Amino acid sequence: MSGAIVHAVAVEAGVSADRAFEYLADGLRQSDWALGSWNREQIEADLFRGTSLFTGEATYVRIIATPAVLLVDYDVGPTPETMMRVNSARAVPGPALGRVQGTSVVTLMKWRLRSQDDDQWHLARATFETEIHMIKGRLERGF
């Protein structure tokens, strides 16, 4: 539904939630799966810059990791001054959701900006559909 303001995708991964969270919170490792911010470099302790595979332009990402709840918020934008909190990732221990020990459920969430048209929103949702499988594959191969 193009009018939605949030999109979420999830996958069960064959690793612990702590391990999944560690991977999701690693700003340089996001270069492995974040199609909108490839070839990451670290600018500050929690600030990274990559290149969008879609536009070739710089994308800045600030990572706000909260280990107590295995949640990572990502502020994203074309400059550090214009970043907005549009993405989050969460790892939940598999047993908390009735799954086997040693697994986790990884969820990516994206909020739609008021300025995004339907085409941009469709691309953002399709990108997350791909990225969640990239994350699962890398987690299960030991990234």
At a glance:
With 143 residues, the chain is an alpha+beta fold. The protein has helices at 17-24, 118-140; strands at 6-13, 38-42, 47-51, 58-66, 71-77, 84-93, 104-111. The protein has a single domain (6-140), classed as Alpha-D-Glucose-1,6-Bisphosphate, Chain A, domain 4 (2-Layer Sandwich), CATH 3.30.530.
What does this structure look like?
The chain is α+β, with helices and mostly antiparallel strands. It has a single domain (6-140), classed as Alpha-D-Glucose-1,6-Bisphosphate, Chain A, domain 4 (2-Layer Sandwich). The protein is 22% helix and 36% strand. The chain has helices at residues 17-24, 118-140; strands at 6-13, 38-42, 47-51, 58-66, 71-77, 84-93, 104-111. It has a seven-stranded antiparallel β-sheet. A hairpin with a 4-residue loop joins strand 2 and strand 3 (47-51). It is globular, with a radius of gyration of 15 Å. The mean pLDDT is 95.
